[in-house]
Design a protein that fits this description.
About 30% of the residues lie in helices and about 25% in strands. The chain has six helices and nine strands; from the N terminus they run βββββααβαββαααβ.
Length: about 220
Amino acid sequence: WKGEKYRYNDHLSNFLFLGIDTREKIETNVGHADAGQSDALYLLSWDRKENTITTISIPRDTITEVEAYGPGGESLGKSQDHISLAYAYGDGSYKSGELSKEAVSKLFYGLNIQGYCAINLDALSILTDSVGGVTVTVPNDSLEEKYPEFKKDSQVTLDGTNTETFVRYRDINVHQSAIARMERQQVFLNAVEELVTVDPSKLTKAYEDLTPYLVS
């Protein structure tokens, strides 16, 4: 890279986390379905030697090579498309997860991804309630016009009634509004991380409550 040689750090384990724009409990039966798209994509890279984690946010509109599939599961070939669509060409379960993992791996030049986890919209309120509510500082003004309670720099406690608004809403008439949404998502995830770090039992409860709404 720019005249310098680099060697891949083989102490890394990489995991893909996906937020899917569907509802209801996830059915893990193989078969083409209305799988939904991955509205949120986060790649977590764990350095096992240093015991540090780096989180990389991947915009849903990132253009990369995606393989399309027909209703019967037959391949329709590869093309340059939005990375969020990779999940949609699967079954809404394991196949969708694998397709998303492959698309992200190609985007990162063949990066080895050891696992993935996908949750749907219903999981958002369940996660927040499982950890007893999440207090965040609103990072930008992207919600303020429609939801005045989410004024920039204000502190808001999220629960099952307002979490989805905070992490999902974007003004589709504003260019690159998904980027401002990603910033809110990162604030939410960091707040949850702080809660479960202080009290690991919250993480156990959250996992148990979320299990019917995730596939990994």
